[in-house]
Amino acid sequence: MRQFSFGGLTLVGYYGYNNLGDDLLLLSSLSLIDEIGFEGPIYLPASSHIEQITHRFPSKLDIRLVSRFSIGEITNSIRHSIVTIFGGGNLLQDQTSWRSFLYYYEIARYTLNRGKPLLLLSQGFGPLNRHINRKALNKLLNNPLTFGVMRDLVSYKYFSSISKRVISGTDYGPYYLQKKGIIPEKRTTESGLAVIVLKNGTSVDDVLNSLRLNNLTEVCAVGFHNHHDEEKRSELESKARSNGFKVRKPPEDLEGMIRIFNNAELIITERLHGAILAISLGVPFVWKKNTKLDRFVRSLNKDCELSFEGSCESLSLAINSSLKEPVNLKDEYWSQLEKTATESKEVLIKLIYRR
């Protein structure tokens, strides 16, 4: 296969912020690029904390770190690239902030204006609250150089209503875990253990009361986004101890984190990749109702009703349902993931070796 000597790839995402979900998306994106035998430079805009996972990068890849907020470095990377890849996430959304949408939109717009392809891998769209941002997204998707592999059906249908250069897929975050043999071969359940991934939308008291009502006696509070989730994690641990629960400290390494998820009797999550890990391991789970999580889970099973609202009663009922009648999405997820990985690599090859 002919390799271009003149260009690299620019790989864009929310990288370098100690966010487990985004770290997995990055590592899986790099795994896919490595598997197609790409030999050019990979320009990676990221925060300085990315150094904590660089030891996991594929050794054969020529990865060049770029300052995430250096306009000059990013535009120079795009000029020297064959294609810009958005590697996982809901990057084009304005729920976090309008600036977040603008950051990724401008990278996408600059790429297309330079006549370079834009590839959206393992992506979802929204939420988008501003009309002007929806119009901007539509303009990007309508460009003949924009291609995508979506991670939820709503985003796929939205893209496909504008352009046919899109494929339906799933989130490929756990792909790296599978390839490295980090996913355990079977479940080892520890009775009474609940792994809890909170942000700021759920009352700690409601969580503990719901656990007690469902005979769960030990908690492991996990922060996927270390800086933002730490306060909630500390509050949960403190109140759990004072209410007679056993408290297990979360592992600091990736392998340990996957083991604790695999051992849990139940996972409660407000973050998407908490649900994705639960699904990929076959662990009973419930999730705090929100657009991103709802879309993802219902892309696997439109009838899955294990979300909860903001009350102890709602959470307790969801936990009871999940434990008594677990919904097995594991096989469907891994089937979709295998298809997504294959099709992502095919699109990469098509765009990189297109001339």
Give an overview of the whole structure.
It is a single chain. With 355 residues, the chain is of the alpha/beta class. It has two domains: 8-179 and 335-352, Rossmann fold, CATH 3.40.50.2000; 193-332, Rossmann fold (3-Layer(aba) Sandwich), CATH 3.40.50.2000. Helix content is 45%, strand content 19%. It contains 13 helices and 13 strands. It has helices spanning 20-35, 71-79, 98-113, 131-142, 153-160, 175-179, 204-213, 226-242, 254-263, 272-281, 291-300, 312-324, 330-352; strands at 8-12, 41-46, 62-67, 81-92, 118-125, 146-150, 166-168, 193-197, 218-221, 246-247, 266-269, 285-288, 307-308. The chain has a seven-stranded parallel beta sheet with strand order 3-2-1-4-5-6-7, with helices on both faces. A six-stranded parallel beta sheet has the order 10-9-8-11-12-13, sandwiched between helices. Strand 1, helix 1 (20-35) and strand 2 (41-46) form a beta-alpha-beta unit. Helix 3 (98-113) packs parallel to helix 4 and helix 7 (204-213) crosses helix 12. The radius of gyration is 20 Å and the shape is globular.
